[in-house]
Each structure stands twice: as structure tokens, then as C-alpha cells.
């Protein structure tokens, strides 16, 4: 029979036959590891020979340029050796200067541009020969007090245009000027002058009837934050020292309502309040009489609208307007003719946004627009529109640093170290960070771990404040021989009010070089003297917030610097929104070369030998490895022998005890999660520059000292201060109350766990999560209190 079939010839080769091994059951990580192990044992020498010996480098960064001599030799390329510090410890850290995205900006072109002459200060007081407070309509007594006690001899431009208008006219006003120009005194001085006129004649002689604290409430000033309320109160109290019969007081959240009611009952002429607490007093405090109120001032109006106070402001304006305006007070003092004949509303803001216009529609009636420039005021009066856009003070020097995500932390340390390299050059620095968790982490990371030195025998040790024990501490890494002591401060909205007030007061009065790590809670209205440098480590959530942040320096004609950290790529386009003249764009290399020119002072038990390398790149790698190893250090007591194993009770499964982790590592993971969530809250118009889908989570994790990004980024709001306990199968909080067995998402996919098993961040607060979702829904187009605390 003929063979007409197909002949198949199989080439088996000399290699032994291998069988496909498939693993089932267990965790997927274990299956992948087992599969890789089998594949490795089955590999043949031919496979190893065909495999490429070296991965192609993707860039030509500074690491490649500085270590090129180590990688090549006369005989050809040699194997890449790990840095010497990695060889000492046995751990190898991933390269900081490899696989980084390329910057879009041409830095060489930036260097070739000739520096312009420093601009004249735009918010400085006017010359004393040209203008003075006496010529603006203030009494001689008040003007002399400003010049002699407060050392204010000449007004600023906004004060010059505002004070006469509010003294002579009774119309509403929209007050707009750049940060640091003196808006607070611009509306306070006319109010004090007109109230003082009830007791003092124009020639300075006293009248028959003197107004005192029980004569009535004449002005209410609203501010968005407690810190700003306190600051306005301090400024007003300094002004009223020459008028001791007039009294001001504050009502704000975080204080005792009982003590506030007692102060209101005793009497006050000017009340400074936050919107929420004032609303509560108007509803429940009967002794609060607004019948004599002539002025309502809304300071930082755009910020109040962003924080969700619109309904409170509507209620406050309605309550004040519905009461009849009294022409005489309870003592029979005639108020007509001296005080305004109608209720005057003054709205203050450094920026013009849609929410400010909406607030103006709620509170203003036929208002006049007052700016620092007469030309702008005349133009607005002719056109009937407000088109002024205010930017930073002209004398403020702005810089943008393009820094890859992996190098952010070491670049920040290098920048701070070079800032304090010369003694007295910079006294106070403010670092703005996006969220409270990140503030806590960076404060703990940069704070020294060394015990305080023993006090001298002849010098009594200062008594530390109990409120600042956890928010103030000496810094490590950034000190130098010229500046051996630098104090670290932290401030955010999640701290108790007494702690916030004490921390801000300590930072304001500090005589030592100081660094304040804070959120946007410190960006509005705060006037801290001698702030020379502002660092935006995380970009603001809107350009208007950026203007307020950098406005903490270069105030009242002083010089100042501001630096903004940006990632390479799309974030570099953000500089086009920062106004004119555009900020100078620099590469991180210049900062690292300057800041890491010498060894870094590491906190004990580490020594500076780790950073005593030949080049700034090796110092940067050693510093990054130090941070990573510090987070991986086991807490004290973890090396103790394990406790004896007990038999599990009947009916209950035994659970292996989780090994302890360093609290700094747990804080770093939580800070990373909160930072990524906050990154997604940029306003819609600016998300083209801050696209979270382009964010490299692995690279960003290294900026928090983490070897890999943790999970649970979408886990929601959690109580981070307490670990849960389990009673009868129910997770309970710190007070013992039981919650649901499944929370609102313990992992990235919202996996229904009552706590995060990776680091034990706490029980998910469902009510807080629901409130936060509602708040984000209303405030998605602007930064909110979620970003602050």
C-alpha cells in the first residue's frame, strides 16, 4: 500500500524535556514566586547566553555624567558597580538619577537671559514727606499713636485710597490690593476714627459723654480662619491702646462658648468672628444685640466662599439687616451724624474670582471699588466693571525648580541646607505642603532624634510650653557650622486650637532661624515678621492660592524669595499662569550642587561619614538611602524574644501577631496616600498641568522615603490616631462603640475591610466619609478644608 501521508520531522535538540508546572491555591504572590523559581531552575545555558547582558540606559542624567569614568575603561565597558555606601550596608537603593523624565524647559536658554534690575517695592509705605495719616482724615491723637508707638509714619497706597473714602462716605466698598499691602489697617482705622468721634471732638477735646464697652456693638469683622481672627484682634488691640475706653473681642471655633457669652455680656464695641461661630451666637445668644452695628467687614471673602460659608454669610447679612438700625444707644448717646446713617459692608480680597463676585451680590449694595492705583479705580468707575488682576509684589523674586519625583526629598534638604549656610542671611522659612498627613511626616522626618543638651548651671532652662511639645523641635540635616540651630514648626487645621495658637505665636516671636511646615491654613492674611523665604513643596490647588502663599514674604516693602517645586513634563506649563514677569525656571542640579557641596549633618545614631562622598550625586544617593533605612528601622523592643504561643480557644481561629513597624514608616505611607488624593483636587482648569494619570507612583513614593508605593490610596477618610479592637466580631473605635463589620474601603478598590491591614491606619469613619464626599462635591473646583486638615 502506498504511503501518501504527511511526514513530520520534529527537532528535539539535546536539551532535556521540561514539563509545564502549574500551581494552584494559596496567594497569587506565592504562586508567582514559585512559578519564577521553577522557570529559573529549568533555564538552559543557551538561554543565558542569548539574554542581553546589560539594560539600555534611558537617559544621560547627572549620575551618568559623573560616573562615566567608573563605567568605562580602556578595554571597553565594565560592569556597573553599586555605590560604595550600598556595598557597606549590603542594601542597594535604586538609582536617583536614572530613568527620570526629561524636562521640557531649556535651562541653558534660561541661564543666558540677563537678570533684570530689582523692581521697586509695590506694597511699600509712601514717602512721609508726600503723605501722612493726619492728611487722610485721622485725628492727631490716632496719627501720633501710629507714628510713635507702632512706627507707622506713612500709609501705603491702598490705605491712602481707602481711609478718606470710608471716613467721609457711607457707601459699601470692595477693597482689593495685593498681599502685604496693609488692607487690615485700611478698614480698621476709619472704623476706629468714627467710633472715637463719639467721645472726642475734632479739636481733640473730650465730649460730655464718653462711649465705653457697654455703649453698643458698632462693627463686626468676619475672617475665614481662627489664626486670621486672632491676628486682626492683635492689630486692633495695638491701635486701641490710645483709646482705652473702646474694647474689641473675638468669637471663633475651638474656644469655650460660655466664656465668649460672658465677654459679649460685659460688652464690646468691635467683634471679630469666624462665620460659623457668629451664626451660632446670633441664634442662641440673646445678649448679642446688632441693632447698633454700622459696619460689616468680610475679610478674605474668596476664602470664606471656598470653605463653604456661603449659607452662614447669607444668614449673618440677613440677621443684621432685618433688625432696625438704632439712632440712639441704650444710654441715649446720639449715633446719627457721627456714625454711618446706614449699614456699611466692606469686602476685602487680594484676588478677583467668581465666588467673590457672588459674595458681593449677597452683601454689597452700590459698592465702590477701591484699589491701590487711582487709574484702576477711575477705569472701573467708567466701565462699571471690575477687571483688575493682582499678582505678587513686584520686589518678590520667584523661582520654579523642575525636580523629578524621586529627587524631591533630597532636593528639599539641599535647598534648606544652602538657605541656612550663611548665618543671618535667612531667618524664617515657610514650607507649604498639600495635606496635614504630609506635614506631620516631614516634620517628624526632618526633626532631630538627639536628646536635648543639658542646661548650663548658671543659666535657668526655659520652661517649655505644653501646647508646643509636639509641634516645635530642633531640625537635623539642614544645619551648618554657621547656623548650628534651626527650629522646626508644624501647623495645620487638624491640631487643637490652643496648639495652633501657641505654635504660631512661638514661630512669630522666635529669635532663632526657624522653618514652618504648614498647609494652606497659613496662606491667608497671616503677617509673620521677617519671613524671608517661601517654599511651595506642593503646588497650590489654584493660582489664587499660589498668590496668597507667596504673599507671606515681601510684605510692606521688604524683599523676599519664593520657590515652587514642579515635576518635569506637563507641570512646567503651569508657569504660564503665574503672571508677569514670569518666574525664573531652574534645574534641580544647581540646588543639589550648592546644597550638597559638603557632608550633611545626620541625626544620631547615624554619622556624617555616610554623606562624605566625592561628588554631590553620591551624597544625594547616600542621603536618600539613609531616609529609606531610617523608615525601615524596627521600633525599640521589636528584637525581644517572641511571647510564648498559647493554644487557641475553642471556636476561634488563632491569628498570627503582626510584626511591629516603625511609626515613621506608617506615617510615611499615610502621607503618601493623602498626598496622592490631594493631588487629584486641583481645580478643573489646571488639571491639564496636574494630571494624576501621568504621576509615577513608584517615583513619588521615594520622595517619602518609601521603597515602593503603598496600597489603599482610594481607601477614604480614616481615624489615624486609634487602632481598632474587636469585640464579638465587631470593630470598635477608641470609645468602645461598635461599628459596621465592613468599612468604606480598606484598599484601592474599596474592599470592604474595617481597617487597613497593611499599616493599621484605623477604623473608617462612615459619617466623616459621607460628609467629606458632600463637601468635595460642593467644593471640587477650589481648595477646601479637606486640603488643610
From TrEMBL:
Keywords: ATP-binding, Helicase, Hydrolase, Nucleotide-binding, Nucleus, Ribosome biogenesis, RNA-binding, rRNA processing
GO CC field: nucleolus
Domain called Helicase ATP-binding: residue spans: 164-370
Ranges of compositional bias, category Polar residues: 38-47
Subcellular location: Nucleus, Nucleolus
Domain Helicase C-terminal: 408-610
Record-given protein name: ATP-dependent RNA helicase
Organism: Schizothecium vesticola
Amino acid at each position: 500500500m502506498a504511503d501518501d501521508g504527511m511526514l513530520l520531522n520534529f527537532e528535539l535538540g539535546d536539551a532535556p524535556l521540561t514539563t509545564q508546572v502549574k500551581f494552584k491555591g494559596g496567594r497569587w504572590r506565592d504562586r508567582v514566586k514559585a512559578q519564577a523559581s521553577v522557570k529559573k531552575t529549568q533555564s538552559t545555558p543557551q538561554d543565558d547566553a542569548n539574554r542581553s547582558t546589560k539594560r539600555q540606559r534611558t537617559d544621560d542624567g547627572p549620575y551618568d555624567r559623573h560616573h562615566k569614568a567608573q563605567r568605562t575603561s580602556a578595554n571597553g565597558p565594565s560592569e556597573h558597580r553599586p555605590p560604595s555606601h550600598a556595598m557597606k550596608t549590603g542594601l542597594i537603593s535604586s538609582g536617583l538619577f536614572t530613568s527620570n523624565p526629561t524636562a521640557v524647559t531649556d535651562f541653558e536658554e534660561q541661564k543666558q537671559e540677563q537678570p533684570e534690575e530689582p523692581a521697586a517695592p509695590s506694597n511699600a509705605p509712601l514717602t512721609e514727606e508726600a503723605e501722612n495719616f493726619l492728611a487722610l482724615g485721622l485725628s492727631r491723637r490716632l496719627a501720633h499713636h501710629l507714628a510713635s508707638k507702632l512706627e507707622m509714619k506713612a500709609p501705603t497706597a491702598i490705605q491712602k485710597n481707602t481711609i478718606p473714602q470710608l471716613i467721609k462716605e457711607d457707601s459699601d466698598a470692595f477693597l482689593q490690593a495685593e498681599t502685604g499691602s496693609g488692607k487690615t489697617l485700611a478698614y480698621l482705622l476709619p472704623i476706629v476714627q468714627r467710633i472715637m468721634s463719639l467721645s472726642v471732638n475734632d479739636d481733640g477735646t473730650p465730649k460730655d459723654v464718653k462711649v465705653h464697652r457697654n455703649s453698643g456693638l458698632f462693627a463686626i469683622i468676619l475672617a475665614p480662619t481662627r489664626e486670621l481672627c486672632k491676628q486682626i484682634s492683635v492689630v486692633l488691640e495695638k491701635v486701641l491702646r490710645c483709646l482705652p475706653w473702646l474694647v474689641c473681642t473675638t468669637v471663633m471655633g475651638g474656644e469655650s462658648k460660655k466664656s465668649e457669652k460672658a465677654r459679649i455680656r460685659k460688652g464690646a464695641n468691635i467683634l471679630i468672628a469666624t462665620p460659623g461661630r457668629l451664626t451660632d451666637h446670633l441664634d442662641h445668644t440673646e445678649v448679642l444685640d446688632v441693632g447698633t452695628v454700622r459696619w460689616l467687614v468680610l475679610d478674605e471673602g474668596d476664602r470664606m466662599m471656598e470653605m463653604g460659608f456661603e449659607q452662614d454669610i447669607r444668614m449673618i447679612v440677613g440677621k443684621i439687616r432685618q433688625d432696625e438700625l438704632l439712632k440712639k444707644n441704650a444710654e441715649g448717646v446720639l449715633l446719627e451724624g457721627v456714625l454711618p446713617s446706614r449699614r456699611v459692608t466692606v469686602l476685602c480680597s487680594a484676588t478677583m474670582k467668581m465666588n467673590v463676585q457672588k459674595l458681593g451680590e449677597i452683601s454689597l449694595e452700590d459698592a465702590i471699588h477701591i484699589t491701590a492705583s487711582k487709574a484702576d479705580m477711575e477705569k472701573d468707575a467708567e466701565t462699571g466693571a471690575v477687571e483688575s488682576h493682582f499678582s505678587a509684589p513686584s520686589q518678590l523674586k520667584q523661582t520654579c525648580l523642575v525636580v523629578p519625583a524621586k529627587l524631591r526629598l533630597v532636593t528639599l534638604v539641599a535647598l534648606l541646607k544652602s538657605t541656612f549656610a550663611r548665618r543671618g542671611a535667612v531667618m524664617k522659612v515657610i514650607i507649604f505642603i498639600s495635606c496635614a498627613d504630609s506635614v506631620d511626616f516631614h516634620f517628624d522626618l526632618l526633626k532631630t532624634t538627639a536628646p536635648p543638651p543639658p542646661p548650663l548651671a548658671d543659666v535657668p532652662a526655659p520652661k517649655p510650653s505644653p501646647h508646643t511639645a509636639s509641634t516645635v523641635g530642633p531640625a537635623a540635616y539642614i544645619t551648618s557650622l554657621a547656623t548650628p540651630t534651626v527650629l522646626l514648626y508644624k501647623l495645620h487645621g487638624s491640631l487643637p486650637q490652643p496648639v495652633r495658637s501657641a505654635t504660631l505665636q512661638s514661630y512669630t516671636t522666635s529669635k532663632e532661624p526657624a522653618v514652618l511646615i504648614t498647609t494652606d491654613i497659613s496662606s491667608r492674611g497671616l503677617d509673620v515678621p521677617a519671613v524671608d523665604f517661601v517654599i511651595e513643596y506642593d503646588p497650590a490647588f489654584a493660582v489664587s492660592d499660589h498668590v496668597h502663599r507667596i504673599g507671606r514674604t515681601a510684605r510692606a516693602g521688604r524683599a523676599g524669595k519664593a520657590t515652587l517645586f514642579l515635576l518635569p513634563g506637563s507641570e512646567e506649563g503651569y508657569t504660564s499662569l503665574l503672571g508677569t514677569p514670569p518666574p525664573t525656571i531652574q534645574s534641580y542640579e544647581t540646588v543639589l550642587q550648592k546644597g550638597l557641596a559638603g557632608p550633611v549633618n545626620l541625626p544620631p545614631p547615624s554619622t556624617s561619614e555616610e554623606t562624605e562622598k566625592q561628588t554631590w550625586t553620591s551624597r544625594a544617593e547616600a542621603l536618600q538611602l539613609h531616609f529609606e533605612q531610617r523608615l525601615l528601622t524596627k521600633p525599640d523592643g521589636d528584637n525581644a524574644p517572641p511571647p510564648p504561643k498559647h493554644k487557641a480557644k475553642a471556636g476561634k481561629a488563632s491569628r498570627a501577631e503582626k510584626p511591629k513597624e516603625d511609626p515613621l514608616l506608617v506615617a510615611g505611607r499615610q502621607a503618601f496616600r493623602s498626598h496622592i488624593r490631594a493631588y487629584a483636587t486641583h481645580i478643573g482648569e489646571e488639571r491639564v498641568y496636574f494630571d494624576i494619570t501621568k504621576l509615577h507612583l513608584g517615583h513619588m513614593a521615594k520622595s517619602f522615603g518609601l521603597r515602593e508605593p503603598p496600597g489603599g490610596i482610594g481607601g477614604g477618610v480614616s481615624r489615624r490616631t486609634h487602632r481598632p479592637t474587636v469585640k464579638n466580631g465587631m470593630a470598635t473605635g477608641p470609645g468602645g462603640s461598635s461599628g459596621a463589620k465592613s468599612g468604606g474601603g480598606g484598599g484601592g478598590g474599596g474592599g470592604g475591610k474595617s481597617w487597613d491591614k497593611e499599616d493599621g491606619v484605623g477604623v473608617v469613619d462612615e459619617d466623616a466619609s459621607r460628609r467629606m464626599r458632600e463637601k468635595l462635591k460642593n467644593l471640587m473646583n477650589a481648595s477646601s478644608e479637606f486640603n488643610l486638615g
